[in-house]
Every structure is written in C-alpha cells, then in structure tokens.
Amino acid sequence: MSAGMEAREPSAKYLSTLQPPLVQQFDLLATAPGGVAKLRELVLTLAVQGKLVQQDPSDVPATELLKDIQAEKNRLIAAKALKREKDEPEVTEDALPFDLPASWTWAALGAVIDIVRGITFPATHKTKEAAPGRIACLRTSNVQQTIEWDDLLFVDRSFMGREDQLIQHHDIVMSMANSRELVGKVALVDHIPHPEATFGGFLGVLRPRGIDPRYALAVLRTPYAREMLIDSSSQTTNIANVSLAKLRPLPFPLPPAAEQARIVTRVEELMRLCDALEAKGQLEAAQHGQLVQTLLGALTASISPEELADNWQRVATHFDLLLDRPEAIDALEQTILQLAVRGLLVPQDPNDEPASELLKKIRAEKERLIAEGKIKRDKPLEPVAIEEVPFVLPTGWSWVRFDELIHPLKPIAYGVLVPGPDVEAGVPFVRIADLSIDNPAPMPEKTISHDIDSQFQRTRLEGGEILMGVVGSIGKLGVAPPTWAGANIARAICRIVPADGGLREFVLFLLQTGFMQQSFVGDTRTLAQPTLNVGLIRQALTPVPPPAEQARIVARVGLLRRLCADLRQRLAARQTTQAQLAEALIDEVT
Amino acid sequence: MSNLSPVIKSIQDVMRQDSGVDGDAQRISQLTWLLFLKVFDALEEELELTRDDYKSPMPEAMRWRNWAADPEGITGDDLLDFVNTELFVTLKNLPADPVRNPRGYVVRGVFEDAYNYMKSGQLLRQVINKLNAIDFNRQSERHQFNDLYEKILRDLQSAGNAGEFYTPRAVTQFMVDMVNPQLGEVVMDPATGTGGFLVCAIEHLRKQVKNETNAAQLQASIRGVEKKQLPHMLCITNLMLHGIEVPSAIRHDNTLARPLRDYTPADRVDVVLTNPPFGGIEEPGIEQGFPADVRTKETADLFLVLIKHILKANGRAALVLPDGTLFGEGVKTRIKEQLLTECNLHTIVRLPNGVFAPYTGIKTNLLFFTKGQPTQHIWYYEHPYPEGVKSYNKTKPIRIEEFDAEKAWWGSEADGFAARMENERAWKVSIDQIRATNFNLDQKNPHAPEQESHDPDELLRRYASLQAEAQALRDQLKAILAESLSGARA
Questions:
Q1: Which residue of A43, A145, B33, B428 has the smallest Cβ count within 10 Å?
Q2: Which residue of chain B comes nearest to A103, CA vs CA?
Q3: Across the A/B interface, how many CB contacts are shorter than 8 Å?
Q4: Which pLDDT tens digit goes with each residue over A493-538?
Q5: Which chain B residues are Cβ-neighbours of A336 within 8 angstroms?
Q6: What ipTM was assigned to the predicted interfaces of this complex?
Q7: Does the reported pTM lie above 0.90?
Q8: Chain A within 8 Å of B17 (Cβ-Cβ)?
C-alpha cells in the first residue's frame, strides 16, 4: 500500500485543504452583497454533512436510532394508534447527494418524519375573527422565518377531518404549493398562542418522529434539500406543488441522536453570529450613509470660500473611506452640481463680461420681436426680490426668473393631451419613458396621426431641444436628438429652448442641479398625478453666471461627472465580483 | 441494479463493523480483491466449459470455489488464518511468467500489494457470503455488475485522495469517440487509473468485431500501466468484467520510471488515451530517464514527453491536461514547442471548472494530436456548462450528451478539418500566433463575452484590479476637487 493511499475520511481532506481560502477571504465574504445569506447556507450544508461538529465514536450509531424509530412505529401500528403506510419509502442509492460519516445513515424522509396535509374549506367560509366553534388556521403567508401568528384565518372546526391536523408544538410547517422559489419553505412551531390551531391545504406539517425537530428544520433549509424539493415538485403555470409521494422518499441524512443535539446547538450559535454580522453590516451601511450626507452636506452649505476650504479638508481626509460605494458617488455628484450652481466650483474671473450684459441682450431681442409684431408681450413676471434669494452669488452673477433665459420665439410649452391610438406612418411621439440626456433611442416607439399633430404645431420638435417631464416623473430630463426632428411630445413633457448666446449647455446643467429640481418638485400641484405648471417653471429662481464662466462650469462639471460615472461602474463591478467570490468560496467547501 | 445495490451497501455496512477497516479507501480496497477472486473464478468456470484443456493458474485450495463459495465453509479465526497466511502468501508468490503463464501473472500482479484489512473472520465470512449471492455467470447480472462497478468507481472519486484515478465517463467516452480506435490498433493508457479509457476503448472496438480473428485482435489491443496498487487492482477486475480474459498487458508500475531511450519500436502504439495525474511531482532520479532539455519533476509534463515518444508515426493521442500546463513556461515551453513541431495538435477542447470535482476544481483541457506532421493551427472549442448549470458536482456530473455540439462540429481529420467553422464557442489560432506568445496554449475565446468566473483566485485578482482602478479614479477626482475647493480662488 503506497503512502498516498493511507485511508482518510473525506471530511478530513476538505477541512485541511479547502477551508483556508474561505477563512483567508472571510471579510470579503461576510461583507459581500448577500454574503451572510451565503454563510448561513454554508453552515447548514456543513451541518447536515457531519462536518460542523466532531463525530463521537461512543455515540450510538444512527442505524440503531433508525431501528428504534421503526420499532416504535411498528408498536403503534400493532396498537392501532398508527396506520401502516401503503408503501414504505426507500432511498435510491443514486440520488444520494453527498457522503456521510460512518456513524450516520441515510434514511427516507418519510421514515423519520410524518407528513400531514392541511385542511380544505370553501373560500366563502373563511373569516378573520375568532368565534366559538371556529379554529385558528395557518396559511402560506404565516410561514416565514418563524411562524407568524398574526393575520390568521378562522374557520369552522368541522372542516378539520382528522385530529392529527391540529398543530403541535415543534411541528415543521411547510409551504407545499407556492411559486418555484418559495415552495418547500419551512418554519418551526415554537409556541401556539391559540388553544387550538390547524393549517390550510397549501401547507403541510412535517412531524419528526424520534429525531430533533430543529435538526430536521436545518436539513430542510439546506440548499441541497431546497433544490431536491423544488426539482421533485410538479410545476404548473405559476404554482409548484410538492407531493407526499415525492417528499417521503427524499434522502435524509441521519446523525446519531447525541450528535443531532450537538449540531443544533452549534447551528443556533452560528446563526446568532450571522444575525450579528448582518445587523452590523446594516448599521455600518446606515452610518456610512449618514456620514456621507453630513460631510458632503456641509460642503454645499458653506457660505464663504474659507468655510468651504475647511469643510473640503474634512472630506478630503476621509475621501477614500467615504467614496467606497456607488450610493456615495451619487451623493458626491449632486454635491458637485450644488457647488457649481453657487459659483463655488470654478474660480471667478473679474475680466469676464457679467451675466447682466447677456440678460440685457436677450431682453433687447425680445423687445425687438414685440415691436415687429412677431410675438405678443407676456404678462410681466415678478422681479426677483432680495428676500427670496437663498444664497449670495459671486460678483458678475445675477438672479433671474427662469423664463428670462428662454428663447422668445419658443416659449416653454407642453405637448399633446390626447394622443389617440398608434398610426402607421404617423408622426413619432415622445413620451416621458423616451427621455434621456445621453442615450435617447433613435426614434420613439409611439406614433400619432398627422391630424392630431397638426393641432400641436408649436411643440413639433426640430432636434436639440431640452425636454423635461412635468407630470408624474417631474424633472426627468432629456435632449431631443436630431433624428427626432418632426416628432411631437406628450402633455407630460415640456419643451425648453434657451435663448441664443450659448446658454443651452448651461441651462441643461442647471436643470439637473438639486437646487432647480427641488424648486420644481416643491411647486407641483397635487392632482391625480403631481403636475408641474408651466407658469411655475417660468417663475423659478435661477442663478446666472457670466457667459465665460458658464462654459468653464459646464466643462468642469462634465469632467467630474465622467469620473464619477467611471468610479461608480468600478465600485458596482467590485460589489458584483465580491458577491461572485463569496459564492465561489462557498462552492469550494460544499 | 435494484437488487445488487443493497448487497454492496450491506457489505460495506458489515465492513464498517470491522475494527481493521478504516475509511472508504480501505473498504473499497478490501472489497476489490474479494471481487477480483470471485470474478476470476466465474471466468474460469466459463473457460472450463468452453476449453477442454483449461488449467487454472491457482493452486486448487486457493480458488474461490474451494474456500469461499460454501456459505457454511471455514469462518472465524480459521478463515482469517487461511487468508492471511495461505491465500495471500501463495498468490503473492505464484510462479508466473508473463508469457508462459499470463493468467498467473495477472493474479500475482493483483495480490502483490493487496492487503487483508479485516480483522474478524466472522465478519469476513459474512462479506463473502453476501458476495456469493451474486451470480456473475448470468449475462444479465454481469451486465448489472458493470453498472455497479461504475458506481464503486465513482465512490472512489469522493473517497479522500483516491479521486485522481477516476475520469468522468462522459469525458472518456467523448475522447474515445473522437480518436476512434480501429481494430488491429494498439491502444495504450500510461496512467490507467481504474481503466476508464481502456474500458471505453474496448467497448468501442467490440462494435467492430465480426469474427473469431477480430475477437482475438481485440484481446491483444489493450495496454496500460498504473503506479498505484488499488486502482491497478480495480483496473484489472474492470477489464476482466469487460471481456478481456487475461489483462496481463496492464502492468503495476510507474510508466515514467522507464528511461525514454529504452522504448523499442515494438513498444510503440497507435493510440494513446489518458488522463495523467496533474500537479504531481516525481521522485528524484525519474527525470534522468528523459532528454536533458525537457527534464522536469512535474508528472504531467513528463507524461506529455512520454506520450509524444511512444506514439507510432501517424499515431493519435487524446489526453486531459490542466490549464497550468497550457500556459506554463520554462521547460513547459520547450516541451510544447517540441510537441507542436513533431505532432499536429489539431484540437483543444476547454472544459469548464468542476468536471473533476470534488477531486479538483481546476480547469482542464482535452488535447487531441497526431504524430508526424507539424502543427499549422490549433482549433479551440470552449465547452459550456449546460443551460442553467453553474457547476458540476457528484449528483450532477458532466453528461455525454453535452458533447453533441462538439461532435457535430468536429469534421474529419482526413481533409484537415475543412468543415470546421468558427463560432462563439470555436476559434482557430495559427502556429505563428502561438509562437509569438512563447507557446502559450492558453488562448482565450475571442467570441465569448467575458464569462462569469467561479475561480476564487481569478475573482480575487479581478477584485483587486477593480479596487485599484477605483482608487486611481478617486485620486483623480479628489485632485480636481481639491484644486476647485481648497480656497485657491481669486
């Protein structure tokens, strides 16, 4: 016999050679998305393979336990306290999913667990109230991690056919008919808050006979058992059914009684640790979110460049810690926009032509068009009052009403109220779902008739317009690509065309800032759907920097946002990889 | 199988009660020599009927029928004593010459390193009696027994470190189908393990048997060598069950221990099919038998050199190799360069992780080559997991049907595989490209989108690189923000 062939139990091999990678990478595993859930599965899997606690050679072997269980059954059958099953379930050798320690044995699930189906009753006879003659009845929604005893049904006790349909302490309740993902879900009855309770027809009760019910629960919750249950279920369109005939022969790993107790103790201990890990993870995530909000919030609330510099120092010190998850990048991006809109992101240049000059030119152009009779004079907007200004702007900037930045010939307008059915070779029709700044579809899907389109000539697109949602998804933004020229827009969208003078990019940036978005959301009138009135958009308070600075802001913001997008993508990919790693590490040991 | 399966299970249960038998590997080992003797006896019974002059190579008293067959026969300490001091001693020392007494040679080979682990004569008698319940002479039970034997072999897979001897049936079958051995050719496995490739090849050749001469050709067409005792014993029994009367061409030896120059033309073979042990290291001195430029201690590499050497001109080979050998450098590079110069390595099928689970999770490849022509280009085929499968395991192993796509794509070597088309699984790499990468045969599929990996090491590398990229982006972001916000304003 060569040295390499010295006998070793398989478990020894696994523990000695395969656990180190999992242990080495434990932190990555435990903090991966869904990592703790994977750990729980691992605990259960190892438990039912006999790898979680040591075997004790002095334990009475499980084969003896199985004989005792059978003997007790035979005694009950002889005493007519139990009916003999028509056919004893048998485990098929080929279906055995893994090897067991020597002191264990495979048993058919039906040999160690009795299974009782629930009661059926007409839907018209269920009530929500307890009353004399009625009995509490569990249904699918009560079977969660534990049995949830609220929201029970109460039905006439006469629907219960047999006394064994009464719920007993330490019954395992199983969902026998459910979606494929949820079928076979189990929970243990650890208390019964009603004098009597039964269970509905989509449920089954698994009543362990001579084995520890908490051990049975652990087995039924392992991925292998779930998989076998699901595979054995018969599938209809939406519902998977577990049948007794399929359930009873499922292979059940049976340890010696003493080991069952040790396993249950160890599993419960490890599950408590998993709970703690999970809670810690949630707490950590919540605290991280709060920290990001606070520190970035302080940045935007800075009222002077000096204070800003101080606040930035604090963010900079912890930059890597703060920006280590995709959600934090979202917050940073909004902070960048908020800083930009206050003139805090790029330095001012005293030589820039002030914003007031640009505004004068726009006003002059408007007056000219009125004089020529091309447009009518609008009802004048309230001038910006000093009291409504939320913060002080840098030199060269001006506060205006949003409408002052709009092209005089193309006022803010929303589109077609009743688009009617799709029309072949009709006019392409833009709905909110079509809106996108960077990546709009070449052509919207819906079309409307030329007839309807002709009634809404003013909102016919030329390409390049800014489009914004005003009903439902208020503030959602898009830019019409050139391919949309000739299309029309929905009532839920308004068209925004800035005045000449290079304003378009800046206005698009402005509309994305939290400052402008919040003013729109705050202005919505509550109808059936929140709706933003065009008048309110026109009046919105708007900060305008000098044209040269506008260009610098747009360029700087664009650069920073591209970096944010790249970083967000890496962080999301890192999370995905971490989750895959967790799975791979666990696959290795099971 | 329904009636045999409980027999084997109850035998294992009896053995568990014996204090001498420890662990799956010993149980299987004990079961195997018993099975061997029983199968051997059954074959002899058949031969005595068909051949007038048949003479057993074993002394009368040692034959199964004479000490084991009677359920009321010797038991207890008498039995134990007989087995340990007579049976084993006699069989280990059978005067057997491979040419004049090949049957005796086979028996001695099996018992050379076999061992009786059982310490209780009573339990041993129980085991023997349970074995006697199986009638190996009935064709139907013989057939069932083959299936049962397969199962015992599969159990080996999970019995500690014995898994290295078992190649999944689907893989051996596919390789044999593609290499397509012909009657009259000699098929060799220099690391037989439990004989999976040879058995597959026998069944493949048996379909070509038309007459007595063919049948004799079949008997002489198999060669093999296995270094370790248990798989060797399993292999011998396996081959006898598959109709090889005298598997004397399966030697219990280390193939690599024989210096390469000692192989004569008579030793060369037409077909090599094998799954050499990966990751193993040979004992010092072994490499001295190999040419200086390819000397290495790594088992898989030496096997590659050996296979190339023992093929006849135009001989064909198919073997399993790990990824590590494909991309390895140094001596590995030289070995690959020689292989590509002397042989046409026309196809590499890349298998996903877990085909050999739980023995090893590493990625493996099937290499197909023909000696005589230099390689012009290599076709790669990436074998996917079947729909919905994330990994293979004991209950869901790789299945032969999964190779239907490869078989349909394969084409014919005679026309240089002219019919092969590139697709999302298949791609072609020229020898220039291979040479440019220093004979790295680990060529990635250019068509496939990046596969979700299940290799923890690869995932860790990816995690680290994403982490580094994120850090670089964060630094850039921080620098720009610092410039904007740290108060450096006019």
A1: A145
A2: B16
A3: 153
A4: 999 999 987 889 999 999 999 889 888 876 666 656 778 888 889 9
A5: 481
A6: 0.71
A7: no
A8: no
